Q: What sequence folds into this?
C-alpha cells in the first residue's frame, strides 16, 4: 500500500477551515488511547481534562491568564512564519521582556506611580524586540541560520534570568530564596473583574494584538508584503520589497509581542521574578500559531485550546492522579496532527495498492 | 599527567553524543531533508535506553532498544515530510516537542533511580599504559562506535555508489527522480539512520555520560548537533573536529565552574550556546562557500510527479 499525493488546483477552502478541528479530534482520540493505557476511563478523563475547567467562572479566568501569553506570542509568530522567518526563540524573548520590564520595580521599588506600569510594559516590549533582533541581525548581516541562533538564545536568556534572581536582583529581605522583591502595587497588572477571578489585562492586550495584526495583514501594504515575501521571495524582490527589512520587521514584531507577554505574565500572575517564569509558553505558541493556521483570529481560538491543555492537565492531575507530563504529550500530538491534516488542504491523498512509483509509471 | 588524562577522557565523553547525533543528521541533510527533531529523537533514545536498562538489568539491551526506539520515532517525521509532504521545519519542531513530552511521561517513574553504566573497554596491559592507555584502550563502547561511524559515513558518502546517489538526491531531487531513483525510499532510509544515530547519542547520555534519567537531559545537545552539521559544511571529518571543539568548551567551562573562578556559573554554562552562535556566524558569513556546500534541495518538500 502506498500513499500518492495529487496537488489540488486550488487549496480547499472547506478543509482549511475544518482541518484544525479534525486535528483536535484525532488528538483526543490518540489521547484516549493514552489514558486507557494508563488504566483510566478515557471518557471520564477527557471530561475532567477538557470540559470541567470550562464550567466554573474562576477557572475561565485562569484560562484567560494562560491563553494571554500564548495568543500574544502566537500572533507575533504568525507574521514570522508567514514571511518565512523561523523564529523559534520566542521563549527567550518572553524571558528577556520579563527581565527588562521588571528592572523598574526591582531596582527602583520606590518609583511607584501611574507611570510605573506603562513604563514597565514599554521596557518589556523593547527588551523582547531587541533580543529578537539579534538573530535577525545575524541572518541579514552574516547569513546565519535564524532557527539555530534564536533557539540558542533561549538557553542564554534563561541562564541570564537565573543569574539575576540568584545574584544581583535577589530580594534582600527574601531569606535567600532565589526570587526578586515582590513588586509594589503600582507595578501590578490590574485584574479585570477581581470579584470573580484573577484574569488581568493580559488577555485584553492579546485580543488587541490579534485584531491589530489581523488588520495589518489584511488591510495594509505591509501585510501584503509579509504574504508576498513569504509565498515567493523572488516575487517580493521584483516588487521592490526589501527582504532584510522584512526579517527585522517580523522578528522585531514577534519579539516585541513575546516581550509584552513576558512582562504581563510577571506583573500579572506572579508579581516577582523567579528562576523559571514560563511553562514553555514560547514553544507552545509555535503550536498555537500553526493550529490557528497562521491567522491571528484563528490564533485566538487556538490559544484558548492550548491554554485548556495546561489547565485540564492540572485538573486531571488533581482529580485523577494523571501525570502532569501528559500536557506536553498532548501539545506535541496536536502539532503533529495539525501538520498532517494540513496536507489535505493542498493535496488529495490517494491510496494506491502494492505498486511503487517506478512501476506505476511503467504501466502508463 | 593523571589530571590531563582525565580531562581528555571527559572531553571525549562530552563530545561523543554530539558527534554521533551530528553524523546522523549530516546523512539526513545530505539527502536533502532537514530534520529539526534531533533533540526529540535524542531524548527518546536517552529515556528508552535508561528504562530498558533499569527493567532488564542489561545496559546492552538498553543501548539496542534506544537505537530502535529513536529510529522508530523518526519514522513519524518521515511520514509527515516524505509521505505527505509537510513543511520540514515545522515537522521537525513537532518531533522535538513530542519527543520532549513523551520522554517525560515514559521516564516519570524512573527519575532518581540509580542507573547502570555501560562497561568500558579494558585490555590488561594496554589500558594501563600511562596517559594514552585509557584514552585509546579504555573508553566506553559508544566512543569506538562513534569513530567507526565517522569513517563509515565518509566511506559511504564519498566512496560508494549508494552514497553518490544519496548526494545526488540531496542536490536535485527532481533530476534524481527522473533518472528512476527512488527519492522517497532513499530519504526514508536516511531519516531512519539519523534517528538511529540520535538514539545512540541519547543512550550515551543516559548510559555513559550521566547514568540516570533526568527530564530534558539532552539540554539542547540535539540543537548543537544541528549547528555542528552547518559548521562542518556537511563534511564528516569536520563534524569530528567540531564535536571535539564543543566537547572541549563544555568541559572547559565545567572545570572553570569547579575551580570557582570569579565568573558567574550561569555565564560559563551559557558558553557552549554562545560558542555555537559565534561559530555559526563565522562559518555562514562567507555566503558563496555556504551556497556551494549546502545540499541544494535541503528542506524542500518533494512530491513525485507521476
A:
Amino acid at each position: 500500500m502506498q500513499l500518492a499525493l495529487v496537488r489540488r488546483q486550488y487549496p480547499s477552502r472547506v478543509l482549511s477551515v475544518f482541518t484544525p478541528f479534525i486535528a483536535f479530534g484525532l488528538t483526543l482520540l490518540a489521547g484516549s488511547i493514552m489514558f486507557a493505557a494508563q488504566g483510566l476511563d478515557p471518557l471520564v478523563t477527557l471530561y475532567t481534562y477538557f470540559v470541567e475547567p470550562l464550567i466554573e467562572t474562576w477557572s475561565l479566568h485562569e484560562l484567560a491568564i494562560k491563553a494571554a501569553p500564548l495568543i500574544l506570542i502566537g500572533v507575533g509568530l504568525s507574521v514570522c512564519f508567514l514571511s518565512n522567518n523561523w523564529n523559534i526563540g520566542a521563549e527567550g524573548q518572553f524571558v528577556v521582556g520579563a527581565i527588562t520590564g521588571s528592572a523598574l520595580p526591582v531596582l527602583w521599588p520606590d518609583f511607584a506611580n501611574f507611570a510605573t506600569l506603562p513604563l514597565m510594559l514599554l521596557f518589556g516590549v523593547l527588551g523582547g524586540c531587541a533580543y529578537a533582533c539579534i538573530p535577525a541581525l545575524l541572518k541579514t548581516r552574516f547569513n546565519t541560520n535564524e532557527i539555530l541562533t534564536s533557539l540558542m538564545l533561549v538557553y542564554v536568556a534563561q541562564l541570564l534570568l537565573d543569574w539575576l534572581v540568584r545574584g544581583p536582583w535577589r530580594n534582600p529581605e527574601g531569606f535567600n530564596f532565589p526570587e526578586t522583591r515582590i513588586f509594589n502595587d503600582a507595578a501590578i497588572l490590574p485584574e479585570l473583574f477581581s470579584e470573580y477571578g484573577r484574569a488581568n489585562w493580559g488577555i485584553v492586550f492579546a485580543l488587541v494584538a490579534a485584531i491589530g495584526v489581523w488588520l495589518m495583514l489584511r488591510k495594509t501594504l505591509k501585510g501584503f508584503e509579509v504574504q508576498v515575501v513569504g509565498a515567493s521571495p523572488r516575487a517580493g524582490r521584483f516588487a521592490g520589497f526589501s527582504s532584510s527589512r522584512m526579517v527585522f520587521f517580523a522578528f522585531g514584531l514577534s519579539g516585541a509581542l513575546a516581550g509584552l507577554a513576558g512582562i504581563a505574565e510577571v506583573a500579572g500572575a506572579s508579581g516577582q521574578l523567579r528562576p523559571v517564569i514560563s511553562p514553555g509558553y514560547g514553544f507552545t505558541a509555535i503550536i498555537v500559531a500553526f493550529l490557528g493556521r497562521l491567522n491571528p483570529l484563528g490564533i485566538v481560538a487556538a490559544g484558548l485550546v492550548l491554554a485548556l491543555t495546561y489547565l485540564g492537565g492540572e485538573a486531571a492531575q488533581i482529580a485523577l492522579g494523571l501525570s502532569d507530563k501528559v500536557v506536553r504529550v498532548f501539545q506535541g500530538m496536536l502539532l503533529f496532527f495539525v501538520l498532517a491534516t494540513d496536507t489535505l488542504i493542498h493535496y488529495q491523498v490517494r491510496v494506491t495498492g502494492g505498486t511503487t512509483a517506478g512501476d506505476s509509471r511503467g504501466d502508463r | 599527567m593523571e589530571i590531563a588524562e582525565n580531562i581528555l577522557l571527559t572531553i571525549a565523553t562530552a563530545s561523543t553524543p554530539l558527534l554521533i547525533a551530528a553524523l546522523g543528521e549530516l546523512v539526513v541533510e545530505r539527502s536533502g531533508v532537514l530534520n529539526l527533531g534531533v533533540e526529540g529523537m535524542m531524548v527518546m533514545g536517552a529515556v528508552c535506553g535508561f528504562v530498558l536498562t533499569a527493567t532488564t538489568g542489561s545496559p546492552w539491551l538498553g543501548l539496542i532498544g534506544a537505537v530502535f526506539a529513536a529510529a522508530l520515532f523518526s519514522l513519524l517525521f518521515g511520514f509527515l515530510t516524505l509521505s505527505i509532504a509537510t513543511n520540514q521545519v515545522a515537522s521537525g519542531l513537532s518531533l522535538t516537542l513530542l519527543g520532549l513530552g513523551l520522554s517525560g511521561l515514559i521516564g516519570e517513574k524512573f527519575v532518581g533511580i540509580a542507573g547502570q553504566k555501560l562497561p568500558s573497554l579494558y585490555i590488561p596491559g594496554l589500558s594501563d599504559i600511562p596517559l594514552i592507555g585509557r584514552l585509546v584502550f579504555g573508553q566506553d563502547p559508544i566512543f569506538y562506535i562513534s569513530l567507526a561511524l565517522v569513517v563509515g559515513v565518509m566511506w559511504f558518502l564519498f566512496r560508494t555508489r549508494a552514497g553518490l546517489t544519496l548526494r545526488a538526491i540531496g542536490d536535485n531531487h527532481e533530476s534524481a527522480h527522473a533518472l528512476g531513483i527512488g527519492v522517497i525510499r532513499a530519504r526514508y532510509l536516511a531519516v531512519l539512520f539519523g534517528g538511529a544515530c540520535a538514539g545512540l547519542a541519547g543512550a550515551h547520555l543516559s548510559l555513559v555520560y550521566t547514568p540516570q534519567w533526568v527530564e530534558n537531559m539532552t539540554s539542547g545537545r540535539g540543537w548543537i548537533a544541528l549547528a555542528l552539521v552547518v559548521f562542518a559544511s556537511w563534511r564528516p571529518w569536520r563534524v569530528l573536529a567540531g564535536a571535539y571543539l564543543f566537547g572541549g568548551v563544555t568541559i572547559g567551562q565545567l572545570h572553570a565552574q569547579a575551580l570557582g573562578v570569579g565568573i558567574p556559573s550561569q555565564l560559563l554554562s551559557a558558553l557552549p550556546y554562545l560558542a555555537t552562535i559565534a561559530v555559526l556566524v563565522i562559518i555562514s558569513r562567507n555566503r558563496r562557500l555556504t551556497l556551494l556546500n549546502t545540499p541544494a534541495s535541503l528542506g524542500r518538500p518533494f512530491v513525485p510527479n507521476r
Remarks:
- The beta strands of chain A are 2-7, 347-352.
- Confidence is low (pLDDT under 50) at residues 355-364 of chain A.
